[in-house]
Design a protein that fits this description.
This protein has about 130 residues and is an alpha/beta fold. It has a single domain, classed as Nucleotidyltransferase, domain 5. Helices cover about 20% and strands about 25% of the residues. It contains 3 helices and 8 strands. The strands form 2 sheets. Strands 1, 2, 3, 4, 5 and 7 form a 6-stranded mixed beta sheet that branches. It has a two-stranded parallel ribbon with strand order 6-8. A hairpin with a 2-residue loop joins strand 1 and strand 2. The longest helix has 10 residues. It starts with a strand and ends in a 26-residue tail after the last strand.
Length: about 130
């Protein structure tokens, strides 16, 4: 199984659509057997789903994510685990052990272009981001 985690400075990045890259872990029998880092380049939400699909990712672990991105990932047969935070390797180990703690509210429910900036986590107007945007 291949697991990708949104990643910046070895921490789960909280904004899927703006993640600078992914920590990619290959696992067998519940253990990490290989890991690498994958740059997202200038990819946007839809392109990120394609990038992960090309890497044959089975599961994405992230902080926050919007519904459109979840749909794009689902179409690529990538299961999403949102609401995670912390060190990427520790998060994957917790996921594999069945002990990963996540925020229940991790979907971003607003539309871009409404005058706020998610890139700086400037959420807090009249929408719910669960503390973070996609």
């Amino acid at each position: 199984m291949k697991i990708a985690v949104t990643c910046e400075n070895e921490q789960v990045f909280q904004h899927f659509g703006h993640t600078p890259g992914f920590a990619v872990f290959e696992t067998e029998a519940g253990q990490i057997v290989n890991e690498k880092r994958l740059s997202s380049g200038d990819s946007g939400h839809g392109a990120l789903a394609m990038l992960l699909s090309e890497e044959k990712i089975d599961i994405l672990i992230c902080g926050g994510i919007g519904g459109g991105a979840v749909n794009a990932l689902a179409q690529a047969n990538i299961f999403v685990v949102g609401g995670a935070e912390g060190n990427v390797r520790e998060v994957v180990e917790a996921f594999l052990n069945g002990t990963l703690q996540v925020r229940a509210e991790y979907h971003c429910n607003h539309h871009h272009g409404d005058g706020h900036t998610c890139g700086n986590h400037g959420c807090g107007s009249d929408h719910s981001c669960g503390g973070h945007c996609h």
